[in-house]
Every structure is written in structure tokens, then in C-alpha cells.
Design brief:
Elements (H helix, E strand, L loop, with lengths): L1 E2 L7 E2 L15 E5 L12 E5 L2 H11 L15 H4 L2 H4 L9 H7 L6 H20 L13 E2 L10
Parallel strand pairs: 1-3
Antiparallel strand pairs: 2-5, 3-4
């Protein structure tokens, strides 16, 4: 499981915008849409995977019981679910329609916002590194960052 909560917009490989996004390096990933994240709905998040059995389990945990999985458009076929709804607990952790409506329009703007965030990040990095008592750690050359926050050492 790849934890991508703080890394929407980050790409890993050769450090360029053509490398895969984080979330594409593991079997599954978890993405947060809490306040101050790149995708900000104020609450919640989502789970992404191409693995059918894992997706079926997550759907059941989220509340796909009594045939409700058939109403979802992104779950595996009914046969993948098997008896999972009777074996697993239902935590009712579905994202609300309102939360999804807030997140969806932000997705196509990720790359544009990453460019703006990174310009600000590198400007701040340069300024902070000029101070003799402050050091912004170097970024990994394999990573195209999403500079929506900055860490530094005093």
C-alpha cells in the first residue's frame, strides 16, 4: 500500500513531469483530501487500485452490502465479491457526494498548480538557504516535487 496522502502531484522516476505520479508504484494507494492537501475537500480521501479482490474488500468496508456494490461504477464484477459482504464488517466509510463534488474539479488542475507551487517553493528555498542558520534539505533528484509545503532545519 502506497501512502499518497501528502504527495498528490509528486512524480517519481527521473525527476520530471513525465514520470509516474506517486500512487502508481504500489499495488494500491491511499489519497487524502483533507484541508490543506493538494486535493482539498475539507475531509475524507480515497483508495485507488487495479487489484479486483482488494477493490472488492475496500468497497465492502465502505458499505457495499446487500447488493449495493452493483450501484458503483468503479468496482470489480459481482463474482469478485463472492461472499465478502458476509465475511467483512461494513464501516460505512463512503465519500459523500458533496465531498466528491468539491474534489472532482480540482483533479484536472493538479499539474498547473504544481508548477505554481514549485515556483514558490524554489524561490523560498533559495531565500532561506541564504540565511547562515537555515538549511532547506536537498530534494531527491528522482522526485519531481509538489512544493505545497517546505521543511527546513535551524
Amino acid at each position: 500500500l502506497e501512502d499518497c496522502a501528502p504527495s498528490i502531484g509528486v512524480r517519481f522516476g527521473a525527476g520530471t513531469a513525465t514520470c509516474p505520479h506517486t500512487g502508481h508504484h504500489g499495488l494500491a494507494c491511499a489519497i487524502s483530501s483533507q484541508s490543506y492537501k493538494m486535493l482539498n475537500s475539507g475531509e475524507g480521501g480515497f483508495f485507488l487500485t487495479d487489484d479486483g479482490p482488494m477493490a472488492a474488500k475496500v468497497a465492502v468496508y465502505a458499505g457495499a452490502y446487500e447488493g449495493l456494490s452493483e450501484k458503483h461504477i468503479t468496482v470489480p464484477p459481482k463474482e469478485v465479491f463472492g461472499d465478502l459482504p458476509n465475511q467483512l464488517p461494513n464501516y460505512s466509510l463512503r465519500m459523500s457526494s458533496l465531498t466528491a463534488a468539491v474534489v472532482r474539479p480540482q483533479i484536472p488542475t493538479i499539474e498547473e498548480r504544481v508548477e505554481k507551487y514549485n515556483a514558490r517553493y524554489y524561490m523560498m528555498e533559495e531565500r532561506l538557504n541564504k540565511h547562515p542558520l537555515i538549511e532547506v534539505p536537498k530534494q531527491n533528484a528522482k522526485v519531481r516535487i509538489c512544493g505545497d509545503s517546505i521543511q527546513f532545519n535551524l
